[in-house]
Amino acid sequence: MKFYVAENEKPVGPFEISQLVARGLKGSDLVWAEGYETWVRADSVYEIKEALAAPTTQADAYRETAIPQLPNENTTSLCPPPPPYQQPYQQPLQQPQQNYMAPPKSWLVESILVTLLCCLPFGIVGIINAANVNSQWSAGRYDEAEKSSANAKRWTIIGAISGFVVGIIYIGLMVFAAVSGNLE
């Protein structure tokens, strides 16, 4: 039986077992022969393991290093499979289409200011929506990013208006209390 050996990530051969031993085959080298499904370690093949264990003379090694005969045109031989450490061809992952437009405004700074200065609940909702804008845009979910931007804007404006209205009402009540306290 003739074996191929994996050298420099390419199959080389076919060789007789004695030729493999003369070439300096090690037990950890990968070999393949017709009928094998995959590449195997050389020391897992009984015949090769026995040949590796047997001592050889220098004359035998010289005689066995002859270049192997190329197959005739009339003979058919199976080509060995690629070595097992080569990755099978995989289609590259589809990259999301590059969008050269700028992402929509996130409204993050405005939402934080509204939260601190005007209206805590509406500002927090604005911050949550604003924080999602850039991550959704980067992930290629452009429609969701636009929607989050619109929601952040809406909640920021609602928070600012409600804070302004509450402030006006508070100032009005203070003025009313001051005026009514002086009249008595």
Mean pLDDT: 78
Q: H/E element string? A: EEHEEHHHHH
Number of helices: 6
Main beta sheet: strand number and arrangement? 4 strands, antiparallel
> What's the number of domains?
2
Strand order of the largest sheet: 2-1-3-4
Helicity range:
40-55%
Rg, nearest Å: 39 Å
Principal-axes geometry comes out as rod-shaped
Count of distinct strands: 4
* Derived structural class: alpha+beta
Quote the beta fraction: 5-15%
What is the CA-CA span between the terminal residues? 119 Å
Stretches where pLDDT is under 50 for at least 5 consecutive residues are: 69-77
What does this molecule look like?
By secondary structure, the chain is α+β, with helices and mostly antiparallel strands. The protein has two domains: about 5-65, no CATH class; about 110-184. Helices cover about 50% and strands about 10% of the residues. The chain has a four-stranded antiparallel beta sheet. Helix 4 (about 110-115) runs antiparallel to helix 5 (about 120-140), helix 4 runs parallel beside helix 6 and helix 5 packs antiparallel against helix 6 (about 140-184). The model is unreliable at about 70-75 (pLDDT under 50).
In short:
By secondary structure, the chain is α+β, with helices and mostly antiparallel strands.
List the keywords.
184 residues, alpha+beta, 50% helix, CD225/Dispanin_fam, membrane, transmembrane helix
Give the SSE layout.
Layout: E1 3-7, E2 10-15, H1 17-22, E3 30-33, E4 40-41, H2 46-53, H3 58-64, H4 108-117, H5 120-138, H6 142-183
Antiparallel strand pairs: 1-2, 1-3, 3-4
Protein name: CD225/dispanin family protein
Domain GYF: 4-47
Region (Disordered): 72-91
